[in-house]
Specification:
- By secondary structure, the chain is mostly helical.
- 64% of the residues lie in helices and 0% in strands.
- It has 8 helices and no strands.
- The radius of gyration is 18 Å and the shape is globular.
């Protein structure tokens, strides 16, 4: 037990705060990404802004706040969200009447994580994308097989376009996006 508990002891110190300019670029990207999702949703939604999903808020933290991270790269952003959405739709379509909502939620996230690992598209907000659909309202689940494409694929693409614009505006040579495409 002592060995197990020792694994929870810190190994390093907290990293220093990022430069203020990097913080500002991150905030600007987050603002613009979510703003464009909201505007796009307002223009093309009928009942509610389907593009304002919690998982896109988490993606904003990654792609604008840590654009160099592997989880933030385009392959992971688009693939992680869309693959997780497909997993969630398939799970609900085939198992909704078999398992309780609690089991479906847990399975949705677990299978999304599994699928993202297998496809090398791990994007942590993808778990939320799956969970949003599995526990979603009739409105969200009404999208069915369209859900991975819209709102998820289109929303992730909007976030990517803003990331390409904002993350490459800085004169800092270290701030560029993406690190890789595929």
């Amino acid at each position: 037990m002592k060995t197990y508990l020792n694994k929870m002891r810190p190994k390093t110190k907290n990293p220093p705060r990022k430069k203020f300019s990097k913080i500002l670029w991150s905030a600007l990207g987050s603002f613009l990404g979510i703003y464009f999702l909201a505007v796009f949703g307002k223009l093309f939604s009928f009942e509610e802004s389907i593009f304002l999903l919690g998982s896109f808020g988490a993606s904003a933290v990654l792609i604008y706040g840590a654009p160099e991270a592997p989880f933030s790269q385009p392959r992971n952003l688009i693939g992680g969200h869309m693959i997780s959405a497909f997993v969630a739709v398939a799970l609900v379509k085939c198992c909704q009447n078999i398992f309780s909502l609690e089991i479906l939620c847990a399975l949705g996230v677990a299978l999304a994580v599994l699928a993202m690992h297998l496809t090398r598209t791990v994007h942590p907000p993808g778990g939320a994308t799956a969970l949003i659909y599995v526990m979603g309202t009739d409105f969200i689940q009404g999208f069915g097989w369209l859900y991975p494409f819209a709102p998820i694929g289109v929303g992730a693409l909007i976030m990517l376009l803003v990331a390409l614009l904002v993350n490459n505006l800085s004169s800092n040579e270290k701030r560029h996006y993406p690190q890789y495409w595929i």
